[in-house]
Amino acid sequence: MSASKQPLHKTSAGLVVIPIAVSCVLTGALSAALVLTGRWETALKAPLMIVAVLIYALVLFILGRSGIENVRGLERRASIDTLTRLPNRHTLGEDIERISQGDEELALAIIDLDGFKQLNDHYGHAMGDRLIARFAQELRSVCGREARCYRLGGDEFAALANGKVAGTILEGLCRTLLERLGTPLALDGRHFAMGASIGLTRSLPEDRAPASELLRRADVAMDMSKRGGKMRCTWFNESFDRRRERVREIEDEIRAGIAAGEFALAYQPLVDAETKQIVAVEALLRWNRGSERDALGPNVFVPIAEDSGLINPLGLWVLRQAACDARRWDDITLSVNISAAQLRNAEFPIRLGEVLEETGFPPSRLELEVTETCLVLDPVVAERTLDVIRSFGVRIALDDFGTGYASIGFLRRFRFEKLKLDRSLVELAGVDDGSRAMMLSSIALARALDMGVTAEGVETEEQAELVRLAGCDQIQGWLYYRALPAEDIDRLIAAQTALLAGGKEAAA
Ligand code: C2E
Ligand code: MG
Ligand code: MG
Predict the structure, then answer these.
(1) CATH number of 262-502
(2) pLDDT in tens, 27-57
(3) In terms of CATH architecture, what is 89-236?
(4) If we measure between CA atoms, which residue out of 469, 484, 482 comes closest to residue 426?
(5) How far, in Å, from the CA of 373 to the mean position of ligand 1?
(6) How many whole angstroms separate alpha carbon 191 and alpha carbon 35?
(7) C-alpha to C-alpha distance for 411 and 332, rounded to whole angstroms
(8) Which atom number of ligand 1 is nearest to the Cα of residue 285?
(9) Closest Cα partner for 400 from 351, 340, 343?
């Protein structure tokens, strides 16, 4: 251990012992000097002086001891998380460095709780703290003597193992932990569902990496677990770094693409389930990247724009452009997709108001599509934002219903004007009884809550008939229309208007 890393209590012990020793030496030397100089009387008082010095030393010792205890307490607190009593990030770094000096395999897991923020928001911070402590207890019990556990901060934990096959052992422990989390954790007679995403990495004696690099790798792997659907473990892989590099490149390209006007909108019509007439269009973002670059769909570039915050300018452009195009489509509803990042942005309702004012687009014809993930990330903020948006007269639709976990309570809380059944649910309902039952009950629930229902991704006549009979009032899918440029929508709507006018004339 280097001098600078000398424990504080050793330094303090020195502060006590040294003055005592110095005092004793000085007293002895003084007595000797007095005797030698013939000053016997004064010298006889030396024992009294020694007693005084001893009392002084005793007081010093007692004070010193309590000081040492305090310093030891501070040291402990600096290396241990006070809430869970687990060692902290600092200690983890030291442990990794120490084990790395040896010739054993070292394996590190970073464990991040899934959706803990929601639990905290829902039950309050005091309960949140108790849940963190409860999880720490579970982690400790799973790791036992085979791995050391740490709390890195917030809802992030780590486990460290060393020795032969440390990686295999640690992965086994992580899988056991996930299995245990499959059953909600009990606390005060209540049960709390908690999930975790885990990233693993290992370091071998022949290929050591510093603690900071191992932590980074485990963190990247943990992020992959989150993106991959949570409640899983992922081993770090070099390709993750390359993928991150590619994501950064795409981010730069999006930025340049916005400036160069490479983005465009396509509109997919939604038809009335009974009449098959176009009643709405959904604006879908397209990126014209030229023939020399690989084509990228919104499923790829929208999540990257969301993560980097670029969705804010891009989403605003979508709103403005869509409102400009749809202004000429009479009473057709315009649907625009809104990302979680946009909804979390406090400026969004203000910008939306500006777009409506600038374009003169009637708010009653605008519908914003949000996904469940948009709302569960921060339900309190989302609810507030949606209330402001609704106050403009704009409607809200829940997109991709059936892919997540939206509960009845969730639907009641947000009171969407429309539910859009995801393509996967529509597809499965045609072949699987369970999915059909789920689709039917979702539609019944939406109806009971006074919501409209649209079936997405309808590709066959059978699916169209199924969703129509089930009670969907609008259908969107390739069976009727694909996403088309604005000019094609102009033509379709003109033809529909002419047909309707012709029908009315004939009826008259
Ligand atoms: P979404 O909002 O659920 O849009 C519907 C997607 O399903 C569109 O894919 C559409 O082309 C596709 N689709 C419609 N009918 C069918 C069908 O019958 N069969 C099949 N196989 N697919 C069908 P697209 O355009 O690739 O968009 C994918 C997703 O990207 C959208 O899903 C939406 O989440 C996101 N997205 C698109 N544009 C925007 C945007 O402007 N802003 C944001 N935030 N997200 C957008
Ligand atoms: Mg949508
Ligand atoms: Mg959808």
Answers:
(1) 3.20.20.450
(2) 667 667 766 777 767 666 766 766 776 777 7
(3) 2-Layer Sandwich (3.30)
(4) 469
(5) 16
(6) 82
(7) 26
(8) 38
(9) 340
- Domain-wise residue ranges, the chain: 6-79, 89-236, 262-502
Taking only the tens place, the pLDDT of each residue in 4-32 is 344 444 544 555 566 566 656 666 676 67
Burial 394-429 (b: 16+ CB within 10 A, else e): bbbbbbbbbeeebeeebbeebebebbbbbbebbbbb
Q: Which residues make beta-bridge pairs with 191?
A: 186
Q: What is the pLDDT of residue 319?
A: 98
CA 466/CA 237 separation, integer angstroms: 45
pLDDT single digits (tens) 322-358: 999 999 999 999 999 999 889 988 899 999 999 999 9
Pairing of strands 148-153, 474-475: unpaired
Stated pTM of the model: 0.75
The ligand 1 atom nearest the CA atom of 284: 38
Question: Which residues are paired to 418 by β-bridges?
Answer: 397, 452
Among 265, 284, 454, residue to substitute to test ligand 1 (most atoms within 8 Å of Cβ): 284
Residue nearest to atom 3 of ligand 1 (CA): 400
Q: Are 374 and 407 in contact (CB under 8 A)?
A: no
* Binding-site residues, ligand 1, Cβ < 6 A: 268, 284-285, 297-299, 302, 315, 318, 337-339, 369, 399-400, 423, 456-459, 476-478, 483
- What DSSP line would sit under 75-117, residue for residue? HHHHHB-TTT--B-HHHHHHHHHHHHHTTS-EEEEEEEEETHH
Query: For atom 33 of ligand 1, which residue has the closest CA?
Result: 337
